[in-house]
Amino acid sequence: MAEGLAAGEVAGEISRHKKHTSDHEHDASDGGGRDHDRVLSIIEAVLLAVVALLAAYTGYASAKWGTESSVRLATASAARTEANRAALNAQDTKNFDSTTFNAWFTAYVAGNEPAQTVAERRFRPPFKVAFDAWLATDPFHSSSAPPGPTYMPQYKQPQLAVAAALDTKAAEQYAAGVEAGANSDSYVRDTIYLATILFLIGISGHFRFFRIRLGLVLLGGLMLIVAVVQISTSPPIP
């Protein structure tokens, strides 16, 4: 769908309106008719000028909001990808910690102290903190001790916090992108109103009956009021 009225379309309508106005004034047989035609032609010209300005504004606003929507949605997609990567890194780290702990535990059960020492040397420093805290709970004799070091409050996974923050960012950016898309659609809707007004004012010049022209101009004027209200209540250009 087009995001705005082409400048050539508006210019063409103004040119045709000027030609038909000249024809009506030339064919009018009395002074009163010429005065009415002249006043109505001025109103039509003013409406066309206002429509041209508003059409340029709504077209630009729709394009800007469309770009804003695309940028926000792309940012949300990138943040979601980074969040998934951080979550996978956290899972890999936890798997490594579990593997080294299982090696230590196997050596402990077998009573192989040198193997225990080697396994402990493979612990990551943050995991070693949680491991020492877990041993302090006397897990082999206390039934209330946590099942393992990864259940200790000292066991930290910064990647999970990063993943959660990125997920929140992705959700916010996605919501902003959807809202920006809706704003763009709103300006496209306003452009459709303006295109209809342009059509009504354009065909009014083809009628030689004053009442028909007046009716089309009044209808176009009412639609213009509706369009102006909608545009004024729409979000400003980002």
Labels describing this entry:
mainly alpha; 6 helices
Would you give an account of this structure?
The chain contains six helices and no strands. With 238 residues, the protein is mainly alpha-helical. It has one domain. Helix 2 (31-110) runs antiparallel to helix 3. The two termini are 21 Å apart.
Largest sheet data? none
Number of helices: 6
Total strands: 0
Query: Which sequence of SSEs, written as H and E, runs from N to C?
Result: HHHHHH
Question: What is the compact description of this entry?
Answer:
This protein is mainly α.
Helix and strand layout, with pairings?
Blueprint: H1 7-27, H2 31-110, H3 113-121, H4 125-135, H5 158-204, H6 210-233
Helix pairs in contact: 1-2, 1-5, 2-3, 2-5, 2-6, 5-6
